[in-house]
């Protein structure tokens, strides 16, 4: 198609949503991910005095944890494309007095950094936001020092049942006549999914890591429980963040019908008191050979 989005524009269309909704992300999503940040930091193997690159830092939660681990003799550089996210991260850095931490705006597939510069590269759910998964991992390899360590995580092979149900139910309410902005977003989402979905299989990702030259590549699948409070809270979060752009072009009456239908259906699939959902996380580690 002549008007098909090129990969760079597709990435910007998709990623700009995180910038647009950065305040919501910080106030509503970050609190749900605290155990995820803590787990990744605990698995990182980062030591005092190290130089660490945090890819796709978002609002800086992993970067702040890394700054504590490396101590005053170490240094952490955290990169992201979204200036709104980085602005929030800078504020948190200043409040924490993290003088060994620096934020820069940068694409993961083309890191404007010298080679062999970092003892470790770390990322929390950041590689699932790129359009070229292999290029991003190749860049991580390039900037690692010989013997340097890569560790990152993202969603596992299977989505939570609740998410699959809710998103499927919402499809019938989505507009059939999207605006140009929403049409571009849908195309961007499709391009991103095409570039990423195959890497949800740990065997495929491990093969890629080894082909790129990484040694000791390992994958660990872990389960985590996310407590959204209630089915109502989960659905409202979905409409305010995950499907916000779609929801903005749905009639209020249809949104109300979807909300009632989804909440009624999801109450029966909660996996614990409150509204707890089991989710898969894959942690990848690898070493750049000396």
Describe this structure in words.
By secondary structure, the chain is an alpha/beta fold. It has a domain of 194 residues: 3-Layer(aba) Sandwich (Rossmann fold). Helix content is 47%, strand content 21%. The chain is built from twelve helices and seven strands. A seven-stranded mixed beta sheet has the order 3-2-1-4-5-7-6, sandwiched between helices. Strand 4, helix 6 and strand 5 form a beta-alpha-beta unit. The radius of gyration is 19 Å and the shape is globular. The relative contact order is 0.15.
Query: Which regions are unreliable across 5 or more consecutive residues at pLDDT < 50?
Result: 1-5
Q: Any guess at the CATH architecture of one domain?
A: 3-Layer(aba) Sandwich
For the sheet with most strands, the description reads: 7 strands, mixed
**Corresponding CATH superfamily of one domain:** Vaccinia Virus protein VP39
CATH class of one domain: Alpha Beta
Overall mean pLDDT score? 90
Task: List its salient traits.
single chain; 290 residues; alpha/beta; Rossmann fold; seven-stranded mixed sheet; 12 helices; 47% helix; 21% strand; globular; disordered N terminus
């Amino acid at each position: 198609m002549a008007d098909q989005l090129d990969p760079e524009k597709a990435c910007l269309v998709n990623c700009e949503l995180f910038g647009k909704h950065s305040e919501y992300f910080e106030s509503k999503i970050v609190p749900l991910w605290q155990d995820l940040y803590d787990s990744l930091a605990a698995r990182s193997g980062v030591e005092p005095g190290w130089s660490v690159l945090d890819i796709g830092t978002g609002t800086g939660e992993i970067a702040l944890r890394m700054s504590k681990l490396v101590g005053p003799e170490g240094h952490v550089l955290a990169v992201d494309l979204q200036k709104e996210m980085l602005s929030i991260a800078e504020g948190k850095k200043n409040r924490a007095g993290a003088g060994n931490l620096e934020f820069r705006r940068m694409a993961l597939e083309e890191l404007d950094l010298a080679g062999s510069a970092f003892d470790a590269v770390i990322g929390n759910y950041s590689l699932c936001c790129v359009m070229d998964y292999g290029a991003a991992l190749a860049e991580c390899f390039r900037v690692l020092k010989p013997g340097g360590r890569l560790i990152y995580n993202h969603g596992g092979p299977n989505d939570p049942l609740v998410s699959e149900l809710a998103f499927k139910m919402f499809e019938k309410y989505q507009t059939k006549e999207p605006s140009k902005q929403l049409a571009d977003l849908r195309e961007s989402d499709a391009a991103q999914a095409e570039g990423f979905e195959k890497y949800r299989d740990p065997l495929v990702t491990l093969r890629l890591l080894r082909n790129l030259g990484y040694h000791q590549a390992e994958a660990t699948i872990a389960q985590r429980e996310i407590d959204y409070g209630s089915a109502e809270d989960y659905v409202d979060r979905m409409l305010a963040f995950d499907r916000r752009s779609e929801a903005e072009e749905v009639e209020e009456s249809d949104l109300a019908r979807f909300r009632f239908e989804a909440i009624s259906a999801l109450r029966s699939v909660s996996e614990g008191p409150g509204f707890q959902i089991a989710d898969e996380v894959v942690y990848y580690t690898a070493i750049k050979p000396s």
